[in-house]
Amino acid sequence: DAMVIQNPRYQVTQFGKPVTLSCSQTLNHNVMYWYQQKSSQAPKLLFHYYDKDFNNEADTPDNFQSRRPNTSFCFLDIRSPGLGDAAMYLCATSSREQGYTQYFGPGTRLTVL
Amino acid sequence: KQEVTQIPAALSVPEGENLVLNCSFTDSAIYNLQWFRQDPGKGLTSLLLIQSSQREQTSGRLNASLDKSSGRSTLYIAASQPGDSATYLCAVPMYSGGGADGLTFGKGTHLIIQP
């Protein structure tokens, strides 16, 4: 089945230790998104790629970076995680052909010690 | 930038009842509206997407309606089952007219179906 895959599902890191979260997709969608969802809150967009074009949200901290080396993969890098960055990180994809319906992966739960 | 509100925040009903979840958004110039389901500790599952030109969409026991002019959408769940228990989120593209934009979500309705 075509899908959005996130690895790892659970990630534990130490305060200030860089961490990378991975997202891959077999849907061949040209748009990919990263959202942050803190406990009991709605998901919040960090940034998205339209093809290779990177679109950063104005209020996304500089601590968060992203890379998209090809259509299938997208990475979220947190350069110096703080306790406030503990959250579920959700990757999603969409395409014009499917009316920009967003399809989400299972998420990566990040714990910062 | 859009703002999305969902009412009620929580709902508990006996199994078998029909129910309606409400969503409102501030800017009527939306490209589409999407309803999601989220189980505890899990990702989001897309339930229905309504394009701006559509009035409603149906999938099984779910029916979503859209009234752009009033900035409202409803999700109707027929013959509710305990397996429907989850948080239901409504979302629209963040910026007017944008389709590929990221989504602005409501805070969700936490639904419990009592067996």
The number of E-state strands of chain B comes to 11
Category from helices, strands and their pairing of chain B? mainly beta
Count of runs of 4 or more consecutive helical residues of chain B: 0
> Describe the biggest sheet of chain A?
7 strands, mixed
Range of strand content of chain B = over 45%
Arithmetic mean of pLDDT of chain A: 94
Structural category of chain A is: mainly beta
Whole-number radius of gyration of chain B? 14 Å
| Run of helices and strands of chain A | EEEEEEEEEEE
**Tally of strands of chain A:** 11
| Ends distance of chain B | 40 Å
> Low-confidence spans of chain B: pLDDT under 50, at least 5 residues?
none
Characterization of this structure:
The complex is a heterodimer of chains A (about 110) and B (about 120). Chain A is mainly β and about 110 residues long. Chain A has strands spanning about 5, 10-15, 20-25, 30-35, 45-50, 55, 65, 75-80, 85-95, 105, 110. The termini of chain B are far apart. Chain B is mostly beta strands. Chain B has strands spanning about 5, 10-15, 20-25, 30-40, 45-50, 55-60, 60-65, 70-75, 85-95, 105, 110-115. Chain B is about 0% helix and about 55% strand. The chains are: A mainly beta (about 110), B mainly beta (about 120).
